[in-house]
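Changelog note: in this version the structure field was regenerated for every chain. One regenerated record is shown below for reference.
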Amino acid sequence: MFHRDAGITGRELYAALGSLAGKAGWSLVGPHAGRLAGGTPSADPCCTRPESLIGPDNELPLRRPTPDGRQAHWSLELHLVDARSTFGGSHADLLDLP
């Protein structure tokens, strides 16, 4: 979905990831599924703004320039639990941008 839709928003990707997780018997947990690469929330408060997260409150396209004019790159951060919440797992990766 990310690679097929150049205009996908943080909200749309978050919803799609939740749907895929649900179809596989998992639940996507947490307020977001990733963030702009290159910053850390403890060092840079901008990293916690909705437009800096792959989450339900980000209506901006993920493929866009950052405020300083650089191409945005994203870190995917998935946190999943099984349908009965007896165990969970996580996965982190960089999303490839053209």
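Spot check on this record: The chain has one domain: 10-95. DSSP finds one helix and four strands in the chain.
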